[in-house]
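Hi Y.,

Following your request, here is the sequence exactly as I used it, all 181 residues.
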Amino acid sequence: MAKQTQHHGRSWYVLHTYSGYEDNVSRNLTQRIESMGMQDFIFDVMVPKEKKINMKNGKRVMVEERIYPGYILVDMIVTDASWYVVRNTPNVTGFIGLGTTPTPVDPKEIEMLKKRMGVEEPKFKIDVRKGDPVKIVDGPFKNFDGRVDELDEAKGKVKVLVSLFGRETPVELDFLQIKKV
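Below is the corresponding structure, written out as tokens. Let me know if you'd prefer a different format.
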């Protein structure tokens, strides 16, 4: 049998999967590692996810989103046998690399990714300042235009001046309920 793989020692590799099947592939691969006795060659399978806060029906909800839809990471030593086990896992379309040779991921990138995944409290990304014009995108004042009056970054709240019946009225909103115009 022709050699299909180059040896890089133990590294993280990127595996391409059908989008939406990342968790399924992770589970299947973990079972295959066990059942085929590959624990000495395939050490870890990771579906990179991060927590985000979204608005749903006017309430904040924490969701986990895949950072790289369609990709998972595998910590392994590539041999012909381990390559075959991973490559033939259902819903895996291949390794990222040149031809059949998987390309290892820079350990610094893996560290940054793990840090990003380990962030428990999502940060509020707010790019407005006092006086900025905004559009309200959620809640009872949806589609109203206003102007930022006060920011409370710690709580993720913003006070917006909205023109109601000819006068500016301050309305307290969540950062997620506004969009910069």
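The longest strand covers residues 10-17.

Thanks again,
Q.
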